[in-house]
Amino acid sequence: MAWNEPGNGGKDRDPWGNDGKHQGPPDLDKVIRNLSGKLGGVLGGRGSGNGGGGLGSFGVIVALVIAVGVWVVSGFYTIGEAQRGVVLRFGKFYQTVEPGLSWKATFIDRVYPVDVETVRSLPASGFMLTRDENLVRVEMDVQYRVIEPRDYLFNVTNADDSLHQALDSALRYVVGHSTMDDVLTVGRERVRQETRELLQEIIDPYQLGLMILDLNFLPARPPEEVKDAFDDAIAAQEDEQRFIREAEAYAREIEPKARGQAQRLLQEAEAYKQQIALRAEGEVARFRELLPQYELQPELTRQRIYLETMEEIYSKVNKVVVDTPEGSNSLMYLPLDKLMEQQATREARVDPNVITSDYLNNNNVPSGQDSGQLRPGSDRSNIRPTSGRN
What we know:
With about 400 residues, the protein is of the alpha+beta class. The chain has helices spanning about 10, 30-40, 50-75, 150-155, 160-175, 180-185, 190-205, 225-295, 300-315, 335-350, 355-360, and strands at about 75-80, 85-90, 90-95, 100-105, 110-115, 120-130, 135-145, 210-215, 320, 330-335.
């Protein structure tokens, strides 16, 4: 049977207390009061006569509990491993938070996470005027990272933009005090180092909370109108450096050899000096020994010295002089062993069927000997050396 069926049964089951005659909408105030009374009984309270005061207090408590829960939950936050959190309380710096899970008072504290480990890059470029009044395009890239999150956020309006302006100012100053050749070729490292030092001096008073890691000086280039000429100049400078390195390598190779030769010559000279000195001392000693004998018999000693000297000289000469009777010439001839060696050499080298004038001249044929008498197969034993007076 339906709860709103007419009759006592339906009336008893009507939660709105209708008698079945009036089917209008229920009284909401009455429903709220009934619920409030029941909840008050559950919480141990006692309902009042009208029930309005209890309902208002309970609603406020529930709202406050819910609000506090939401406020507490909303305060949890996480700081990444590469970050640091800067906490402001009522707009004033409060503390720096390390990585991990933390809690803040919502609407009271504000947290700004800052990446302190990532290496950041900031470029600077432009056409700049050098000291010798030339225009070059220079590009430089600075690498840095944050080391003080508080200074990075609040000491200047924008630390990255401040660093960019400082880099541009330092670069223009250094390029303006350098020549074009320095910027394009040999002075690039000096320009980079001076720019870094000047940049550090500029940003230190501002306390940007940044640390400069490195400056990369990208290849500078002249205006397009004179680019070919500067390319030739750069190639010539590279050739110059290459020649210098080759010359240094050659010098390193030759110098030890020259030092060795000089040392060898010094040692040979020292040995020759000692040899001559010892020989002279020996000659002096020998003559001192001969002196008493010479004083006793001068002629005999003189003759003996002469014969010994001539013996030493002739022992080194290939010619043999034979004394002949008076009125005849001395006959000069080669020793028989030498003559036989030359004979065997000629027979080994020369075709016996061909004898030319060059052969006769090269083999010392006497001028008085008729070369026409020599024929292939003729006896060459009649060839004799030329006789002459010594």
